[in-house]
Amino acid sequence: DTPVMRKDFLVDPVQILEARRAGASGVLLIVTMLDDAALRAMLDCAAEHGLFVLLESFDELDLARASQLLDNSGDQQRAERGELLFGVNTRDLRTLHVDPRRLQTLAPFLPRARCVAESGLHSSADAATVAGLGYTLALVGTALMRSEDPAGLVGEMRAAGADGITA
User: Which residues, in sequence order, are CB contacts of 73 under 8 Å at separation 6+?
Assistant: First the structure.
């Protein structure tokens, strides 16, 4: 019952099938790496095999392309069910530098869907800030690995995020 996402550089539908076979419940698709036809094929494959998709964006163009998917009724329905999520990653794929300001800069361009703040969140204050910007979920890794109390940090971040959404 625990969601498991294949977080990799996926470029072919066969990789989605591999993920499903390995027990994944979702996949990460990087918008900037896929042209429109490849993105469509990947989304369709994931839907056919019951996997959720996190669409990762890095800039306004990525977000615009991802947002256009909501014009498709099937994609809109998947987004409403939480099977299609829209993410903004603060880590530059070329330099691996994290720029947490990217979350604020791109917040005005977020689609009307469940949006994920990816990378660069370290504290409950960060969670509250991004929730106030319109992000409803967060992908947190390094902060949890470095924390002496990962479960406690998750609880604090969830509470602060919930407070930030209602503020």
Answer: none
